[in-house]
Amino acid sequence: MKAEKKTKTIKNIRIDVDKCNGCRACEVICSSFHASPQYSSNNPERARIRVIHYPLRDLYVPVYAGEYAAAECAGRDKYTINGKEYDECSFCRASCPSRDVFKEPDSGLPLKCDMCESEPTLSEPMCVQWCLADALIYEEREEEVVEEVTQEEIEVGLEAMAHRFGWQKLLDTAARMSKKD
Ligand code: SF4
Ligand code: SF4
Fold it and tell me: Which domains does the chain have, with CATH numbers?
């Protein structure tokens, strides 16, 4: 398969846990931005970010909804921070069957942070804009990636061209072009 070099924009939100004060503005705006119709409601249960609260320990950790997991994982994370131990899976990003986090409350469908890409004109994701404590910092960088063109992609492309021009014309063109090489 042919590998192509492309430039890809990597989007990143850096989280400074020490600056988070647990205000939950990020949850409110995320749920409101993704409400249908947009901004018609706000409900942090529908947010794609959750601020995990441990007020007695003065710890607030913003966690972004990540990939959907169809089954519970066999291994569990257990964190100790500044000598204090936290519950299993506390800071996990997955929407998984073992808990109710990152699930649409009505349908139970998994929620995943989409970096607010439904609105391409945004300079920064909404949660970053609403975090007045600067605990969420948006960063972008360009990275060169090697993308391999798969057999399936070639077949889909060829089928689309054949649909438009007909197989015979495609074959004649390919034969003529191959003679030039
Ligand atoms: S808006 Fe910022 S300070 Fe407030 S809870 Fe979210 S991350 Fe923390
Ligand atoms: S980047 Fe957008 S989708 Fe992701 S948590 Fe923030 S507001 Fe929600």
Answer: 3-146 (3.30.70), 150-180 (no CATH)
